[in-house]
Amino acid sequence: MTRSHHLPTVLVLLLALTLSACGFQLRGQANLPPEMARTQIQGLSEYSDLGRDLRRLLEGSGVQVVPSAEQATAILDIITNQAGRRVLSVQAGGKVQEYELIQRLVFSVRTTDGRLLLEPQELELAREYLYDRFDPLASGSQEGEIRAEMRRDITQLLMLRLQALGSDG
């Protein structure tokens, strides 16, 4: 009876050991370079949606996000953060039928003494959606949801680039 009682615990421990042996990490936890232990984010408002998402992911990976370069060991410089929309197709009569949303982010990482850890990197995402001219509120809501998804995706891509930097050393 005691043996079967411990079986689930043993199985969970074996699963955890197997996953850690193959390099598995929970999403949001990145192995970042030690130089990024205390990082300042420049070029992005900490109150913006992207700023909050990025801060949460960095802190989830053990990075202390600091407000000033004097407190930092590294600076994550957001060089460009652009969101745009363009018309993809129109119906007869010139009414918009389909839009493309674009999110572009250019960033680099350097130490506070100026040593470049990561050359400027460009990330760009594009998503398309159909515009319903008979229900513009729903189309606006759909656009907002797609933009939020793109923002989450681009921060995940940024973290993957930083994680690759951490595994280089």
TrEMBL record:
Keyword annotations of the record: Cell outer membrane, Lipoprotein, Membrane, Palmitate, Signal
Lipoprotein is among the record's keywords: yes
GO biological process: Gram-negative-bacterium-type cell outer membrane assembly; lipopolysaccharide transport
Keyword Aminoacyl-tRNA synthetase applies: no
Predominant localisation class: membrane
One function term, GO molecular function aspect: lipopolysaccharide binding
Topological category with respect to the lipid bilayer: Lipid-anchor
Reported function: Together with LptD, is involved in the assembly of lipopolysaccharide (LPS) at the surface of the outer membrane. Required for the proper assembly of LptD. Binds LPS and may serve as the LPS recognition site at the outer membrane.
UniProt family annotation: Belongs to the LptE lipoprotein family.
GO CC annotations, alphabetized: cell outer membrane; transporter complex
Subunit record text: Component of the lipopolysaccharide transport and assembly complex. Interacts with LptD.
Name the record gives this protein: LPS-assembly lipoprotein LptE
Domain of life from the UniProt record: Bacteria
Alphabetized InterPro entries for the sequence: LPS_assembly_LptE (IPR007485)
Location in the cell: Cell outer membrane
